[in-house]
UniProtKB/TrEMBL annotation:
GO annotation terms (biological process): L-valine catabolic process
One Gene Ontology cellular component: mitochondrion
Record domain 3-hydroxyisobutyrate dehydrogenase-like NAD-binding: where: 186-299
Domain 6-phosphogluconate dehydrogenase NADP-binding: 12-181
Keywords: Branched-chain amino acid catabolism, NAD, Oxidoreductase
Protein name: 3-hydroxyisobutyrate dehydrogenase
Record-listed E.C. numbers: 1.1.1.31
Pathway(s) of this molecule: Amino-acid degradation; L-valine degradation
Catalysis performed (reactions): 3-hydroxy-2-methylpropanoate + NAD(+) = 2-methyl-3-oxopropanoate + NADH + H(+)
Active-site annotation: K192
Top-level taxon of origin: Eukaryota
Gene Ontology molecular-function annotations: 3-hydroxyisobutyrate dehydrogenase activity; NAD binding; NADP binding
EC category: oxidoreductase
């Protein structure tokens, strides 16, 4: 991102979580050297670690509130875990971004969070009414490694001219060929929720198939190779086989530790099913996958684990799962 006469002098980033940390670090690495990146984060340890790492690439300020951050930033990115956090960060009358953004300041607000479409539209309306700038929804996909490497996919909703304005900033955290303009406000979130829904349903089918093969006596590695050279192939079968030992880099190889948590997958799956209901789209599998994740967030096999730990519900028989066999 080259510096021009119209390049903002101040950038802000709120939310240095598992995904936000890497995104903010790539923003600081690629934004103009003479601009300042201001950050806000509740976790003191992450604030300290981020400043230590990011300061190697340019000026970094750690600020105490979104209001303070807004007062010194022209472009502000937010990466937060749920809708209420986004609403509070923007709209709190004492500490929020809008409280620090005077009318006519023409700020660019980019929300990278995965939240309900209705919640994002409400925040966008609040930004418009404040006349402090423009708001776009830009949820991301690709996981922590892509966030760290600056190779995320982004799905963007809002006015086309606002997307064009944001594109140089988005290219600091994602691949140019994987940044998609989806349409009107909320369209980015709708696309993200649909994608996650399909991924979660396909993973459940993969788990059912692998469990069936193992119970029959098939070699799971041979079965995985057959699937990946046949019509059953999907992203999860290529990268995230649920059987430990089949793929060295799958979450199963880490006992489903780290990564996108079961609770987050539960939330985004519920959002997708709600979206289907809101637009009147028929669904056969929506309530099924939602029920699986409702069970998963209460199961000791899945709670706090990477979301693909739902495979354990198929193979653990303890009265809380779905299956009749035990994981070896």
């Amino acid at each position: 991102m080259e510096t021009t006469s119209t390049t903002p002098s101040g950038y802000g980033f709120i939310g240095l979580g598992n995904m936000g940390f890497g995104m903010a670090l790539n923003l600081r690495r690629k934004m103009p050297k003479d601009s300042t990146l201001s950050v806000c984060e509740l976790d003191e340890g992450r604030r300290k670690t981020f400043k230590e790492q990011a300061s190697a690439f340019g000026l970094v300020d750690v600020l105490d509130s979104p209001k303070e951050l807004a007062s010194v930033s022209d472009v502000i990115l937010t990466s937060l875990p749920f809708a209420k956090a986004v609403s509070d960060v923007f709209e709190d009358p004492s500490t929020g971004l809008l409280a620090g953004s005077p009318n006519g300041s023409d700020k660019l607000f980019i929300d990278l969070s995965t939240i309900e479409v209705s919640a994002a539209l409400a925040v966008g309306d609040a930004v418009a009414k404040s006349e402090a700038g423009v708001f776009i929804d830009a949820p991301v996909s690709g996981g922590i490694p892509a966030a760290d490497n600056g190779t995320l996919s982004l799905m963007v909703g809002g006015r086309r001219e606002d997307f064009d304005r944001a594109l140089p900033v988005l290219e600091t955290i994602g691949r140019k060929e994987s940044i998609f303009y989806c349409g009107k406000a909320g369209a980015g979130l709708a696309a993200k929720q649909i994608n996650n829904y399909i991924a979660n349903v396909s993973f459940l089918a993969l788990g059912e198939g692998m469990n069936t093969g193992i119970r029959y006596g098939l070699d799971p590695k041979v079965l995985a190779d057959i699937i990946n050279t046949s019509s059953g192939m999907c992203w999860n079968s290529l990268h995230m086989n649920p059987v430990k030992g089949v793929q060295p880099n799958s979450s199963a190889s880490r006992n489903f530790e780290g990564g996108f948590k079961t609770e987050l997958a539960h939330d985004v799956t519920s959002m997708a099913v709600q979206l289907m209901n809101d637009v009147g789209a028929k669904h056969v599998l929506g309530n099924v996958i939602k029920d699986v994740y409702d069970r998963a967030i209460e199961s000791p096999h899945c709670k706090g684990k990477e979301c693909r730990s739902i495979y354990r519900l198929l193979v653990e028989d303890d009265g809380k799962g779905l299956g009749t066999t035990k994981i070896e």
